[in-house]
Every structure is written in C-alpha cells, then in structure tokens.
Give the backbone structure.
Amino acid sequence: MGETIFAEMSALAVATGSVNLGQGFPDTDGPREVAEAAAAAILEGRGNQYPPGPGIAPLRQAIADHQQRFYGLGFDPDREVLVTAGATEAIAAALLALLEPGDEVIAFEPYYDSYAACVALAGGVRVPVTLRAPDFRPDLDAVRSAITPRTRLILLNSPHNPTGSVFTRAELTAIAALACEHDLLVIADEVYEHMVYEGEHVPIGSLPGMRERTVSISSAGKTFSFTGWKIGWVTAAPALVEAVRAVKQFLTFVSGGPFQYAIAEALRMPDAYYASIGERLRGKRDLLCAGLSRAGFEVYSPQGTYFVTTDIRPLGDADGVEFCRNLPRQAGVVAIPNAVFYDDREAGRTQVRFAFCKRDEVLADALARLEKWAGRG
Ligand SMILES: Cc1ncc(COP(=O)(O)O)c(C=O)c1O
C-alpha cells in the first residue's frame, strides 16, 4: 500500500497543482562540489564500467572513516563495509540474507514501507511493536513479550520515519540487552543519522555486545541530498557483510559507479557541513510545525528526520487516508496518511505525515494554503 499511496499522491499533486509535502525527497540538490565530482568521474572514465562488487575501495574507506569519526567505531573497509543501491537494497539484501522462512522479525511500526515487503519476500513473519502518540517511544515490555523462539532479528529505524522519534541511549541499551539475552540480530536503519534536533543519534551497533550482531545501514541520499543516486551502505561484522553481499550480488550486482566516487569525497566534508544539515532542517521543522499548529493540526514535533507527524482530529477528521485523498483538491497540499505505515491501521488512522525537506518558500506556500483552507488564513 505504501508504494501505491506515494504514486497516487504524487499523481494528485501534479493533477491539482498542489504543493507536494508527501514523498520525502529534498527539493534542493546537495553540494555543488559533490555533483561536480560525479560529473568529473563520468567524464574521466571512473566508474563508468561495473565497479567492484563490494563498492569502490575509496568509498568503502570513506564509509569506515565516517563511522570512526562520528561514532568511534572501527570497521575494516575490505571485510566490514558493503556499498549498496541505496539503503533500500541494503534492507532487502540483509533481510533476504539473514531470514529463513518462518523466522520472526520484530519491527517498530509505523515502518518504512519496504520493511513489510522485504520481510515477506524473505518468507519471514513480521511482529510489529507499535510506537504510540504523542511520544512514539519504544515499549520495551512489548518488545520483550514479542520475542519467541522463532524470533531471528529486530529491525529498527532511529531517527524514525515517519514519527521523528529518536531512540535514546537508554532505550537502545535495553533493546540491545534483549538482543544479547535472546541471541538476536539487529538491523539498524540509520539513514537519518545526521538529522537530529533533540537528543543524539546512538548507533545500536556501538553498544556492549552489539558489534557482532548488528547490521547498520545508511544512505548518501539523505545525508547529501542526492536521493536519485541511490548510494547506500552496510557496516557489520565480516560474516554478516559476507551474507548480505551474497544476496546483493544477485539483486543489482553493482550500481552507481561514478556516484560512488563522488560520495567518497562527500563523506570527507568538514564537520561544519554535517552540522549544517541539522541546523538548516531545524528551522524548517519549526516553521512547518508552527504553521500546522496554526492551521489546527495536533503536531508531534519530531526529534529527528525531515518528517512531522500530525493528528487530524482537531480539524474534525478521523480518517487520514480519506483526508489525504481530499486535501490536494481542497487545500492544494499533498501529505501522506501514516496508516499505510502500520499493520495496526487503527493505531495510525488519524495521523498524517508532512515532509519539510523543502525550500522555505515552498513550506510557506503550503502553510498559507492550509491556513486559508482551515479558515484561519
Ligand atoms: C527509514 C528509511 N529507510 C530507508 C530509506 C531509503 O533510502 P534510499 O533512498 O537510500 O534507498 C528511506 C527513504 O525514505 C527511509 O525513510
């Protein structure tokens, strides 16, 4: 349903001339020098033919250096780093590699739509643990009681799309302790690692006992605002990387040769660049949250990511799917109903997600439309 709703909403955005705050992609490209590095790689003939299966050596080294620089985590670029076609392929390859049919996967819902699809493709059984409004904290008792002898892994995403929740060190430590106690693997989707406004991003792989059992996933699409390049990566212990690579080989084999060279350079950008990601987005978050509140939404201000989840009940609505189908024609704005990210549709029925990775004038335009529509403009 996730993919269907994104396509439907994007088509509606075009048909109605709406401001599209639905799908999560920035409307401004990443740094020019990174784009130039990609162009130079193409023109100079670097990466135009199949790159090496695990990814080009300079990019694997840059990924390892990034993990060291930000988290103090040491990875061997030859045996513990794998370049993938975006985080999406990393998630798919990891689940296909690590699950046997019938294995159970505990995942926090609402979840990024590929999780359910890929668990199903791998023949796994997803066992959702629901993050509930208003705080969307992981319920550790619920995680504990979700564990059975068939549980193989915990799939988590922090900072979390679509709720914007950032799991705390204490929460992650408790999840890690359960993983160790029950000998579970963890797949950690950390694509929003550099978009945190409150708290800190703690890679669960950095916690005691987790180095050997965590597959960490991230993506240049988010950090450098080049979502179309689809350069993602996995960092994990050698046996896990080897297993993921064995599947990746038959999904895409390799991808994005010249972009890999560009991202190798991008990852080496100074700390000021990384700091600027959050600083820029924080202002956008505040702008959108304030405007949505003024328009009458209940707003759950996100601690991270570039999404904000709202509740539409104060506006007199109760069905997010219907609300999002009507909003483009009525108000000229596109949003995504959170229900599509839940197994338990009731839990997310009244929630609607807006993306704020857009230019300030685009956000202001969307808000003016929403406030006018809501009768407050
Ligand atoms: C939680 C999460 N994981 C993974 C992805 C996909 O990343 P990529 O574009 O690198 O495949 C997204 C993109 O929206 C996401 O929100």
User: Anything to note?
Assistant: Residues 96 and 122 are 5 Å apart (CA to CA).
